Amino acid sequence: MKISKAAAAAAVAVALALTATACGGSKQDAASDGGASGGAKDKLVVGIKYDQPGLGLKTPDGKFTGFDVDVATYVAKELGYEPNQIEFKQAVSAERENLIANGDVKFVVATYSINDKRKEKVDFAGPYFLAHQDLLVRADDTSITKAEDLNKKKLCSVTGSTSAQNVKTKLAPEADLLELGGYSECLTGLENKKVDALTTDNSILAGYAAQEKNKGKFKLAGLSLSNENYGIGLKKGDKELQTKINAALKKMVEDGSWQKAVDANLGPANFKSEPAPQITEGS
Amino acid sequence: MFDFLDSGQYDVLGAFWVTVQLTLYSAVGSLIWGTVLAGMRVSPVPLLRGFGTAYVNLVRNTPLTLLVLGCSLGLSQTLGIDLAGDTFKETGFRLAVLGLIAYTGTFVCEALRSGINTVPVGQAEAARALGLSFFQVLTLIVLPQAFRAVIAPLANVLIALTKNTTVAATIGVAEAALLMKEMLENEAQAVFAVFAVFALGFVLLTLPTGLLLGWVAKRVAVKR
């Protein structure tokens, strides 16, 4: 009898502890969300990628680095926010539209290609960067010079990504395509010669090639297989914010910080960056 | 709202067919492997018993994603074991089946072992008294009764397996979850509609399994 009572008491304690922590967590979330959508001037919530070196990366010590982060910080400064007032939130590809539409983030800077389907649900500012689908190959590999070479190659890309679909439907339907969960997993195969090339936007590839642990191992093939205009996603119909961000982007290019950010984040690995694109959205 | 289904761009049925194939191959494989494991765990040989126990406890408590990813990154990409697959499509499918069998086999084993416990000890003792060997006792007397007792738990394992096949998408097997990722990438304006299509697909796969095997379980149960 004593034992079962003790067990019951323990169970109740555990249950209480669990519900208590759950409450704490959700309350915190609600508070930060409220701050963002309420338009309070104290915090600015920006959506970025957490897993793309060179573009948007959350480092193990909790800092954020990358070109997208630099752009977001610059735009935020122009909107009147200090760097310590910016709160970065993870925006994985499939959730970007909903994060914006629900007001969870003010805007999204996350390798977000402008296209018509996406414009049905969100508006864009920019573009702030022109990327092309390209290939990352081993540094000593010279066998890929044009898109047709791919049909006999083993390629790797990320499950469901636009680049993977491009390969399957347009570029090289006969290529042997491996789709894995992330680009880092593809790098294992590339290093072990199980795959010949890793394909996605050249900006993302350059970020991986520029990582400290990969330096000198890989290079970009330098093919322009598609045009991806990265824009800053924002709530549909928010013309005021769109104009302000466009102005901020223009200023960033003019005062040279844009080029500096590109060189710092994507510099190494034979990456020839395009000049800053003309701003086309919202005019 | 569901107009993305009419575009002809997505082969939803084909993707679910791969899911069904993954499920069937893995189900057959894990039934065999699980039975072997259960045999090991009740065998009189300490070494086999030890291996069975260690394997089941180790693999059952390893996340399936790790196992399947380990098959791809570890076996295929690092060690070069491709299971005779020529393309990534074949290799990926076989590696996924291997991973699923390794994982699901442990659950089949534990379900069977509970079934073995429902067979009265007297049955095995009587068989021993007749002069049957351990293997004969197990395959002729104990397992047939044990199987009939655990149809319902095995149905649960099968349903879990059906849903677990989605993990194969992480190593690029073109099944339902992979197509869903593709559709979410292109049709982000209809996230909930896409999600509903795939949720419905899995309900259609698992619900009949549960109903059918539940009915079978009632029919064949040994009344004691």
Give a written overview of the molecule.
The complex is a heterodimer of chains A (283) and B (224). By secondary structure, chain A is of the alpha/beta class. Residues 20-40 of chain A have low confidence and may be disordered. Chain A has nine helices and 13 strands. In chain A, a hairpin with a 3-residue loop joins strand 2 and strand 3 (56-58). Chain A is globular and about 55 Å long. In chain A, helix 2 (67-78) crosses helix 8. In chain A, the strands form three sheets. In chain A, strands 5-1-6-13-7 form a five-stranded mixed β-sheet. By secondary structure, chain B is mostly helical. Chain B has helices at 12-42, 46-60, 64-78, 88-118, 121-129, 134-149, 151-164, 176-186, 191-220. Chain B is globular and about 70 Å long. The mean pLDDT of chain B is 92. Chain A binds chain B through residues 93-94, 96-98, 117-118, 120-121, 154, 159-162, 164-165, 176-181, 185, 188-189, 192, 194-195, and chain B through 69, 72-73, 76-78, 80, 87-89, 92, 169-172, 174, 178-189, 191. Chain B: It is a multi-pass membrane protein. Chain B: Keywords: Amino-acid transport, Cell membrane, Membrane, Transmembrane, Transmembrane helix, Transport. Chain B: This is Glutamate ABC transporter permease. Chain B: It is found in: Cell membrane.
